[in-house]
Design brief:
The protein is α/β, with parallel strands linked by helices. Helix content is 39%, strand content 17%.
């Protein structure tokens, strides 16, 4: 590692080396868990791009289990579960948890995700800016009606959840 980047610090050098060693063990893949979502964000690549109708949603847990086993067999050990809205389908997530070493879900935060059985699942709560910005761009129900308080709801649902991280999209 460049001394310029770590400032010649022995501590930073060791920390970087530890991260590099750990990251070599990660083989990640991203999976679309569902075509269903409880909101319709403006500019959503999934719905605006027609991916919800272009892809067939697999609902059979046995087929999902077999698919995950194939992924594990090819060396994948880390799953990022996205869209539509993963928290709507905890049984599908449980299949990934049973076979993958690490699982992260990406959620809009409207629905709390259970802790029991999912203690080691990282929860990435997506924001578009918080407060009024999220309401303007994301607080839209599938039927097109608008609501308020998306950001506040996400905070309430995940504020004390040690699995949660808030990310800006």
């Amino acid at each position: 590692m460049s001394k310029r980047l770590i400032g010649g610090s022995a501590d930073m050098s060791e920390r970087f080396a530890a991260v590099a060693r750990y990251s070599k063990k990660i083989r990640a893949s991203e999976y679309i868990l569902s075509n269903a979502c409880n909101i319709r964000c403006e500019g959503c690549w999934f719905f605006d791009g027609g991916h919800d109708t272009a892809t067939k949603e697999v609902k059979d847990l046995g087929l999902i289990r077999e698919f995950i086993a194939q992924e594990v067999a090819r060396g994948v050990n880390t799953a990022l579960l996205i869209g539509g809205e993963p928290t709507l389908f905890p049984l599908r997530i449980a299949e990934y948890v049973a076979q993958m070493e690490r699982v992260t879900i990406s959620t809009n935060g409207l629905k709390p995700f259970p802790v029991a059985g999912f203690e080691n699942v990282a929860v990435a709560v997506t924001l578009f800016g918080g407060g009024p910005t999220d309401d303007k761009l994301r607080a839209i129900r599938p039927n097109g009606t608008r609501f308020t308080g998306l950001f506040e709801t996400a905070l309430r649902n995940y504020r004390a959840d040690p699995r949660a991280h808030f990310i800006y999209a």
